[in-house]
Design a protein that fits this description.
The chain has ten helices and no strands. The protein is mainly alpha-helical and 234 residues long. α1 packs across α10, α3 crosses α5 and α3 packs across α10. The N and C termini lie close together (6 Å).
Length: 234
């Protein structure tokens, strides 16, 4: 199938489904409120315990917010691609799939942290052994970190999608995602790399507004394309 033919359906859905932007807008509003509250509250902390408590509370709230947003966005995407009413699909997804998506997001965050730790200590060990300069060590860190993400985390990409579309359990969703990525590794990698390049491009041109534009426009488009990939191979 030609790429422009494969893209025609999700692009048409993207411009005709304004509800896609609502979850992204909720994330933007929440992020703004969290940053504003942190700037006011954190300077008043007198002990590390207060800071850890704040981070714990906001971490749990953030996990819930992002889980609801992702559940809604994925539900809307699948419904819109099938020409079904998007709002009922979003409500069903919010009522049914949020706990599993929260678990998947938590596993993803822990996996990212683990990869980052491995990259950090691996760079330190190799940097010392090879007497690397600071720029060379930084480059090595990003290489190890990127390799870890591509080797492991990419296989979690569709976990939330399978949880929503097929109502699979957390473990079954991860297994299904792993199998799917193995079969469509280059397509998945291409979509993720393009989204990363778009973010870097936005940040280089509009550093202040990059996060807002990416979250509001690129994120819904990426979710829609990934959902479309699950239903229609390139």
């Amino acid at each position: 199938m030609k790429l422009h033919t494969w893209l025609s359906r999700p692009l048409n859905v993207f411009f005709r489904t304004p509800l896609l932007f609502v979850p992204a807008l909720c994330i933007i509003i929440y992020t703004f409120l969290l940053e504003s509250a942190s700037k006011r509250i954190v300077p008043g902390f007198t002990t590390a315990a207060h800071l850890y408590l704040w981070l714990g509370i906001t971490g749990i709230i953030s996990l819930a917010v992002f889980s609801y947003a992702l559940a809604g966005l994925i539900g809307i995407s699948f419904a819109a691609l099938k020409r079904q009413p998007a709002f009922p699909a979003a409500m069903h997804s919010l009522r049914t799939h949020v706990p599993r998506i929260a678990g998947i997001l938590l596993i993803s965050v822990l996996a990212i942290s683990l990869v980052r730790v491995i990259a950090h200590y691996g760079t330190g060990a190799l940097g010392t052994a090879l007497s690397l300069s600071v720029p060379a060590a930084q480059t090595l860190f990003y290489l190890i970190y990127s390799a870890g993400l591509l080797a492991f985390l990419i296989f979690l990409t569709f976990s939330s999608f399978f949880a929503v579309r097929d109502s699979l359990s957390l473990i079954s969703s991860i297994r299904a995602s792993t199998r799917f990525v193995k079969q469509h590794y280059l397509e998945t990698l291409s979509l993720l790399v393009v989204s990363f390049i778009l973010y870097e491009g936005l940040y280089s041109v509009l550093p202040i507004a990059a996060d807002i534009i990416y979250t509001l426009l690129v994120t819904p488009a990426l979710i829609l394309l990934l959902a479309h990939l699950m239903n229609h191979d390139i």
